[in-house]
Amino acid sequence: MLLLATLFISACSDDDNPIDDGIRSTKALLILSEGKWNENNSTLSRYDLVEKKLDKDYFLTVNKRGLGDTGNDMIQYGSKIYVVVNVSSTIEVLDAATGKSIRQIDMKKEDGKAKEPRQVVSHKGKVYVTSYDQTVTRIDTVSLAIDGSVKVGMNPEDIIIKNNKLYVANSGFSYDNTVSVIDIESFKEEKKIEVGSNPVNLGVDSQGDVYIALMGTYGDNPEAPSFKRIDSKTEEVKTIGTVKSPGRFVIYNNKAYIINGTDKTVTVYDCLEEKVESDNFIKDDTKITSFPYSIAVDEKSGEFFISETDYVTPGTVYCFNKEGKLQYRISSVGINPTAVITLR
Length: 344
Prior knowledge:
Elements: H1 2-5, E1 28-33, E2 43-48, E3 53-55, H2 58-63, E4 71-77, E5 80-85, E6 90-95, E7 101-106, E8 117-123, E9 126-131, E10 135-140, E11 146-151, E12 156-162, E13 165-170, E14 178-183, E15 188-194, E16 199-204, E17 210-214, E18 226-230, E19 237-239, E20 246-252, E21 255-260, E22 265-270, E23 275-278, E24 291-297, E25 304-309, E26 316-320, E27 326-330, E28 337-343
Antiparallel strand pairs: 1-2, 1-28, 2-3, 4-5, 5-6, 6-7, 8-9, 9-10, 10-11, 12-13, 13-14, 14-15, 16-17, 17-18, 18-19, 20-21, 21-22, 22-23, 24-25, 25-26, 26-27
């Protein structure tokens, strides 16, 4: 589970997170940390960019209770924050301005067993959540009620939206090799595209091409991790061999910023030119000393947030500008920091 967690990331859709923030500058960051699996110590931190102060236990401070066990993903949609808590099998819906919990959505199957939600994306008044019970769940953002579910592949991880389709990475913990394509209007799976073993992380460029980080297989005959692309016109799957040891990634302005956990660097791949632009996005002397765990980007400012972890002690979040120069760092935010949101 810990190894799998190193590749997971929040996804973005065509019109994800429609926030009316005008010309206001960023005032704070929300940082979700997973904690240790099965130790019920996930945290949501708030870093005030004006006062340079960190409330490490922001959720606890505001709501007078813990967040739960293994917070895996987080997005903002309108005035609300949606936090996916995997082992606790809940979705926490927060008021973005105050951090106060509006509702805790219980993610259970009909037999009462946990669905184990994993990743989340938003689109046109709905939030879509992958879960380890082989489903994608749809939540209405007005009623905050579950209003649909569709079966996909084994142990679905990342989820993205493009051209009114949902794309879901079916990892199967190395026992699945497909990406599900779901029509949003009918909310039915149209097809599965075979992409290779253990697809985990997804991204999409302006042409509609879908990019995939695959973890590969384990055991006696392991298959190495790989980076691949699904052509939007032909659905042909191509391996991008120039990207080595791919982990979590984001696509910004048609460039993929891909964590290389082996070298502790971030590869920059130009999706339109189809070539590696740089072996390392970081252009100053900043060093990621522990494992680079996650990467996120603020679409408004072009600032990148890279977190590191040693899996035991509270990690660090680094903020870089679009030129790859360090702006600031936030230490001791929580164990395994996994998602960052900019508040305006």
